Amino acid sequence: MGSFTKADVRTQVVGNLGDPAKLTEQDIDQHIDEAVLAYSQLSPNVKAYDYTGDGSTYDFTFPSDFVDGFSSLLSIEAPQGEQIPIYLTQTDWLFYRSTTSLKLRLLTIPASSVVVRITYTAVHLVDSDDVSLSTVPSTDIHAIVYLATSRAALELAGEAVRQAKGGNSDIPFLPGPATDYRFLAQDYLRLYNEFMDVPLDGSKPGLWTSGSLPALPSWDSAPLIREQRNPIPSR
């Protein structure tokens, strides 16, 4: 899906800043990571994961990229593989928190070899140098560049203020005053919001799908076809 790396984004961020004032690659990469996380909150990475029943297990561990507090569980298909997909209703499962982690508990135990497929949201990834590992669509590189530029400009604005007050600085030279960087940060944040269709009133755009796990139903929007009975073949 992705067709760009952090190096591609970094090149454009440096170009937007004009002079990065000796910000290191690590500094800029941190802003890129922050931009990817913020982007993921509006346009998350939707993934699927399969469990296979054994006739006794009812608590299932979420995939490693299911982030507690960020990810949403969108649907549970069980048994997986029917021509007309069968989805569990909200009364067929629950989130169960153990002493160490959050679990998916199915209230009917899947029989041996029965496949249960979940769809869920995860944080996107922009890899340092491997395009194949990046998950942000190539058309959305602009969103990452705009927001990373805005955040980097804010860092430079703060550093400029510290220099103006005579404080110590790790950056020996800044080519412009703090207000220039603030305006630059505002301009690129505006470009990001326009690209992501974020309303001016600050409300969430239509593509927003993340939220607090305990308050979410099993999907943010119901499937077109949904089985109302408990369909899992049990032990």
Task: Give an overview of the whole structure.
The chain is an alpha+beta fold and 235 residues long. It has 2 domains: 6-43 and 125-195, no CATH class; 46-122, no CATH class. 31% of the residues lie in helices and 14% in strands. It is built from 4 helices and 6 strands. The chain has helices at 6-17, 25-42, 141-164, 178-195; strands at 45-52, 59-61, 73-77, 93-97, 102-106, 115-122. The protein has a 3-stranded antiparallel sheet, with no helix packed on it. Strands 2-5-4 form a 3-stranded antiparallel sheet, with no helix packed on it. β4 and β5 form a beta hairpin.
Q: Segments where pLDDT lies below 50 for 5+ residues?
A: 208-229
Run of helices and strands: HHEEEEEEHH
Helix proportion: 25-40%
Biggest sheet details: 3 strands, antiparallel
**Strand arrangement in the largest pleated sheet:** 1-6-3
| Total count of strands | 6
Question: Rg from C-alpha positions?
Answer: 22 Å
Overall, the morphology is elongated
Total count of helical runs of at least 4 residues = 4
Structural class: alpha+beta
- Note the beta-strand portion: 5-15%
Q: What oligomeric state is this?
A: single chain
Terminal CA distance reads: 39 Å
Average pLDDT metric = 84
**Number of individual domains:** 2
Provide a brief overview of the structure.
The chain is an alpha+beta fold and 235 residues long.
Provide keyphrases for this structure.
235 residues; alpha+beta; 2 domains; three-stranded antiparallel beta sheet
